[in-house]
Amino acid sequence: MKSIDLKKLINKPKLLTALFALVGFAFMMLSTQNYGAGLSPDSVEYIAVARNINSGAGLVFHDGTPLIVRPPLYPALLALTSNIFEMDPVTIANILNAFIFSLIVFFGGQLVFKYLSSFTALGLIGMLIILVSTPLFKVSTMAWSEPLFILFVLISILFADSYFEKKGIPSLIGFSLFVGLSCLVRYMGVSLIIWGALIILVLNVDTLKNKITHLSLFTLISGLPLGAWLIRNYAISGTLFGPRSASPDTLFGELVFLFNNLSDWYIPGVIADHRSLLILVSVTVGVFLGLNPKDSWQSVRVSLQRVKPSILFVITYTACLIIITTLNTSLEPISNRYLSPIYIPLTLLLVIVAHALAEPYRRRFSIITVNSFLIIGIAIWLAYPLHSTFLEVVNITQNGQRYSSKAWLESETIHYLLQNQSLESECTIYTNDPFASYILAHLIITTSPAKPQYPFPENENEISTLRGSWPEESRACLVWFDVTNRPDLLNIDELKTVANLAPIMYFDDGGIYSVVSK
Known about the structure:
Among the domains are: 1-144 and 367-400, no CATH class; 410-517, no CATH class. It is 66% helix and 6% strand. The radius of gyration is 26 Å and the shape is globular. It has 26 helices and 5 strands. It is mainly alpha-helical. The chain has helices at 6-10, 13-31, 41-55, 73-84, 89-115, 120-131, 134-140, 146-166, 169-183, 190-203, 208-237, 251-266, 269-272, 275-291, 294-305, 308-327, 336-339, 343-357, 359-364, 367-399, 406-409, 412-419, 423-426, 434-441, 460-464, 492-498, and strands spanning 428-431, 446-447, 476-481, 499-507, 510-517. It starts with 5 loop residues before the first helix and ends with a strand.
């Protein structure tokens, strides 16, 4: 049997990235083998829509409301794969996301070797960074749409690079198609339309006539899928994106969330948690950059010229994210989940800058010595994401995540509901967690009353107006999960001021109450 020629393998980036992709698939499958994909409320909604698509009910949630607040492509893909393999969407979700993650590794690898083609060893480290990155791992082990969105972002960047270099119509069409698909995965895909328009108008040095032609073609192709979906939404609900309200978060608050999440990506906790050590490292880096020769910065500018589309994407996406999370309360504050699409391009840009800063030293010292120091430095930093991801793997394999976690699967309240399915016929059931009830107990239950004017401070007098109006039914029950934190809903003490609650069963993680209107 012939031995593998590593040198020849390294010189074949597509084959090498394909091997990394296979490792990524296996890595993701091993991580979720015990409990499957993590399930959050968003995940439950995706799974419910997928089930309803396969049952013929259409694009509706578990409670029958139409899918409007989220685009349709991820649950549709979940429905398609579950139908092909004749498996429930809950079961297929981790397999689908493992496959998507492997494609992320593959196309991310294409970017790595495209940007770092002159430094193969650094390209290999770049591949490892993608494979063990904590931000990508976290979103890919959940039944979320982010992995599919990230995949389309990477393919869009590859097409954008090709268009930036050649100004060809085929590249523009491919770019437009994947930007359009991204909009059907997450509404944040709109930021990619803005990004594409900026590439054509700002980075394209062609004539004004050609710019207008290319922009018209790009806007038509990329905007058509989302436009059709929004017309459908408006026809059904009278809104484009579903009900939205103003956010209580300030611009400064969102910028703090942004800084904290980016710091978690690149600064080890042992440094970030010790202010003196953090200051020392910051000063050291600052002094190094300040003393760097002028030709180093010239090298950086030259290196960044060819990756302008990626730079523009990171800036555009981040700016849009800040604006949207500041104005829209239906989104959580800026988090790792929302920022994950910029992880690969941003990290590659940082590696490119580090590589360029070392260029003048290669002319003064041994190239092998300088490259070795650069590789060793990045490899040492690589130990940080590797350690973080390892801890995540251990936690997920031992405990699972959210509704697919060991704690929820062993919930006494859930077990009671499973053993007493007749409760649904005996009374109208309300709950503070309809997602857990649906995905774990197979019950479609109404959500308990919300606080008036949430997310702004509740008014005690307004809460009292619910007295006598809830519940409307003469026979009602309340399933309460202590582990669920829903600040938008009235808590148990507040519900007791509105109605008479009598305990039926108490559990370690919740309880069942009979409810009678006052």
